[in-house]
Amino acid sequence: MSLLRLAYLALAVWGAIHPLSLLVGWFSEHGWQLGPMIEAWQANAATRALVWDLTIAALALTLWILAEVYVRKNWLALIAVPATFGIGLGCGLPLYLFLRSRPVT
Fold this sequence. Notes:
By secondary structure, this protein is mostly helical. It is built from 5 helices and no strands. It has helices at residues 3-30, 34-41, 45-72, 80-86, 89-100. Helix 3 (45-72) runs antiparallel to helix 4 and helix 3 (45-72) packs parallel to helix 5.
């Protein structure tokens, strides 16, 4: 496996573990309900901007994944879509790059 692929994989793992650990801490402190989380996303203009920026980037990544899967028939790469929306862009993007950069057989 190339150094680049290892870097993508490491970023995908970090992009899963680090944000999820912070979310678990936040939910432990504020309760295990989505309402307070959504309120926190709307707390001020800076957090709203970040939420929209990440949402737009996640949608763009999803379109890119779908377009490339259609052409390349790399069906495994589709797991990056739920990773993006279920975990976050910090996991989904490097995961997709890892899957996309595998050697073509």
